[in-house]
Amino acid sequence: MKFKLVVFDVDGVLTEVESVWRYLHRKLGTLKQAEVNAKAYYNGLISYEEWAKRDVALWRGIPKEVLISIVNNIPLRRGARDLISFLKAKGLIVVALSAGLSLITRRIKDVLGLDRELSNDLIFDKNGKVSGDVVVKVRADNKGLVLKKLLNEYNLTGKECIAVGDSEVDIPMFKEVGLSVAFSPKDIKVAEAADVTIYGDLSKLLYLFKLILSK
How many Cβ atoms from other residues are within 10 Å of residue 191's Cβ? Predict the structure, then answer.
């Protein structure tokens, strides 16, 4: 089977930050309350949508430019440009699929030349400030469903897709593809769910892709 599409998680895979949500909370001084919100979600007390809205409400009134300036300081992982350039040269469709924010995924798309990005959108008011609302497209539990819709859009099967991720959030999409890669996974569950596990920098992932795509 020839692979035609590669889907990447973003936080911790293409960037060096494990969570853009947590990164922003830390920079904006809202991390303590955000941790309360996270606990409520993981204890089953609120939905993912409610969790996202509670988190975004902590940033209400902050100008978009402030958030962009913070996000623009998030470093790409070393080797990201070479990796994506190789995949594009091989004719593959490359997509970022993240439960994070489009503030970072759109930047990644533009900088690396990805074909698509799917994530969650902050809503800004007419003055360009955080309204306190958010459009949730990718939850912590639905990456598999989002990937299925993406494959349908491109008229592809799961076997024609490669997925790369590092956390339990990525396991649902691992189940939908022909090749799943755990990149420096956060725990053993992620490694066990993947076909291949890689630790280190993205040069090792590039080496793997060169082996696979040269066949």
Answer: 16
Compute the distance between CA of residue 8 and CA of residue 11 in angstroms, rounded to an integer.
Answer: 9
Domain 5-21+72-213 is found in CATH 3.40.630.30: no
CB neighbours of residue 208 within 10 Å: 17
Domain residue ranges in the chain: 5-21+72-213
Instruction: Specify the pLDDT at position 53.
Output: 96
How would you write 20-65 as a 3-class SS string? HHHHHHHHHCCHHHHHHHHHHHHCCCCCHHHHHHHHHHCCCCCEHH
DSSP 108-134: HHHHHT-SEEEEEEEEE-TTSBEEEEE
Q: Is the separation of the CB atoms in 136 and 120 below 8 Å?
A: yes
pLDDT, tens digit, for every residue of 183-208? 999 899 999 999 999 998 999 999 99
Average pLDDT of span 68-74: 95
- In the predicted structure, residue 44 carries a pLDDT above the cut 90: yes
- pLDDT of amino acid 215: 65
